Amino acid sequence: MTTTCHGSCVCGAVAFRVDGPFTRFPYCHCSRCRKRTGSAHAANLFVPAAQFAWERGEELVRVFRLPTAPRWSNAFCTVCGSPMPWLARTGASVLIPAGALDDDPGLRPELNIHFASRAPWYAHAAELETFDELPPG
Ligand SMILES: [Zn+2]
Ligand SMILES: [Zn+2]
Question: Which protein residues have their CB within 5 A of the ion that is ligand 2?
């Protein structure tokens, strides 16, 4: 199945498109992804590099490469700070922060990785009291 998805940052200065099929879709609980996202885990969608293209604002995206972690990077819009896609150092694949997508990629997250590194305060979302919008009061 070929799915085309669009993605963008919060301020709208950066936009991209990505064509499926996607390679992998893990939640990553590693400490670097937790810091990169400011959240309990990242939702990392991977695609072959040829299936990804910037639509606007590529020059506004800054990529941070951590020398001690060759498989990890961080990319973000320098205007609004939203996490943005980055090309793996092998050049083979692009990591898409799934929260940046404006369309449904079809695929659902399929695994938790680096789960032993999860935050001590991590709780499964399904176990939480849930509201469609803000809770009353
Ligand atoms: Zn932005
Ligand atoms: Zn990670």
Answer: 28, 30, 33
Residue located via tokens 């940052």:
9
Place of tokens 């400490």: 31
Phi, psi of 115 (to 5 degrees): -65, -25
Give the whole-angstrom CA distance, residue 115 versus residue 105: 24
Kindly give the distance from the C-alpha atom of residue 123 to the centroid of ligand 1, in angstroms, as a whole number. 30
91-123 pLDDT, tens digit each: 999 999 999 999 999 999 999 999 999 999 999
Asked if the structure places residue 17 within a domain, the reply is yes
* CA of 120 relative to ligand 2 center, distance in Å: 16
CATH number at residue 23: 2.170.150.70
- Structural domains counted in the chain: 1
Tell whether 130 is covered by a domain: no
Domain that residue 11 falls in: 4-119
Per-residue model confidence (pLDDT) at position 63 = 97
